[in-house]
TrEMBL record:
GO biological process, one term: peptidoglycan metabolic process
Main location: membrane
Name this protein carries in UniProt: Endolytic peptidoglycan transglycosylase RlpA
Residue span of region Disordered: 31-90, 211-257
Root EC class: lyase
């Protein structure tokens, strides 16, 4: 009898212990789920799926989204260029994403490039950008792979002619066929929200020149009759004069640049623009500032501003003068 009572007591204790463990497990599951259930109420994330993936971070997530109730962003003002120190974060000379290595430019002045723009919205809204700021999709900002952070840039739609000024404070897009990622507001202003992408021209803005009142170059469309003609194959490229350039200017250049550079002469390309008028304005400005020739070469609606010809002995001096004029990065054209 005593053995039966002992066995019964042990069985009851075991059942009670099992029930207790089951209850604890149930309570633990509920506590883990609670934060996930509350997450949609946070303005920084659109859904539970916005939690960054452990490998690749937010760039490994699929899909993006419009705001649930899209506000009117047509009157959101452009970013206002101002002189800022480089961000402490996001400016490493090289970095790696998805196994690809990218290089950050030391200076943005003179940067101009055409390409495809995309945009990013709800999926990234409220997340930290590469320079440590918080991404706000309703402000005029952008992401770029190589421009230093922050950089102010003029972005012009090559389809509509609309232009905005954004502040680059993030890295991306990490797709080889894209040039820049725009905020929701910037994309809306340029009219590329519905298509998702658009053809644009990106030009870095020099805050010092901006604050001094120099807002060039212009993004206005130019009539075809005003566009400089492309030189036929094999023919020596011809210089495109500025609208009111004085022929006597070239005669006043120092002898080092006025003389024929001889064999091995090169041109230094400082910009490639999508506007003939903008290229001619830049040409005119440089002719007034530099003691060397400036030409504009056109090819498929791209207008390349080049300085020269420069001989081997003159290249170092020419590069220094271009750097002082605000163009530290140039490309050699032979």
């Amino acid at each position: 009898m005593r053995m039966l009572q002992t066995a019964t007591w042990r069985l009851g204790s075991a059942l009670a212990l099992a029930a207790l463990i089951s209850g604890c497990a149930s309570n633990k599951t509920q506590r883990v789920e609670a934060p996930s259930q509350a997450q949609p109420s946070k303005p920084a994330a659109s859904s539970a799926s916005t939690t960054p993936a452990s490998s690749g971070g937010r760039y490994a997530m699929n899909g993006d989204a419009y705001p649930v109730e899209p506000p009117d962003v047509s009157t959101v003002p452009d970013a206002e260029p101002r002189i800022e120190a480089p961000s402490r974060a996001g400016n490493r000379s090289t970095y790696e994403v998805w196994g690809e290595t990218y290089h950050v430019m030391p200076d943005s002045r003179g940067y101009a490039k055409q390409g495809t723009a995309s945009w990013y919205g709800e999926k990234f809204h409220g997340y930290a950008t590469s320079n440590g700021e918080i991404y706000d999709m309703y402000k005029m900002s952008a992401a770029h792979r190589s421009l230093p952070l922050p950089t102010f840039a003029r972005v012009t739609s090559l389809d509509s002619g609309q232009s905005v000024i954004v502040r680059v404070n993030d890295r991306g897009p990490f797709h080889s066929d894209r040039e820049i990622d725009l905020s929701y507001a910037a994309a809306a202003r340029l009219g590329i929200l519905d298509n998702g992408t658009g053809r644009v021209k990106v030009e870095a803005v020099d805050p010092e020149r901006w604050l001094a009142g120099d807002r060039a170059p212009s993004s206005a469309p130019v009539a075809a009759s005003r566009a400089p003609a492309t030189s036929p194959p094999g023919e020596q490229p011809r210089r495109v004069p500025a609208p009111d350039a004085a022929p006597a200017q070239s005669a006043s250049a120092p002898a080092a640049y006025a003389d024929t550079p001889g064999e091995g002469a090169i041109y230094l390309q400082i910009a490639a623009l999508g506007s003939a008028e903008g290229a001619q304005q830049l040409q005119k400005r440089l002719e007034n500032e530099l003691p060397m020739g400036v030409r504009v070469m056109s090819d498929a609606n791209v207008y390349r501003v080049q300085v020269g010809p420069v001989g081997p002995a003159q290249e170092t001096r020419a590069r220094e003068e271009l750097r002082q004029a605000g163009f530290p990065q140039v490309f050699i054209v032979r």
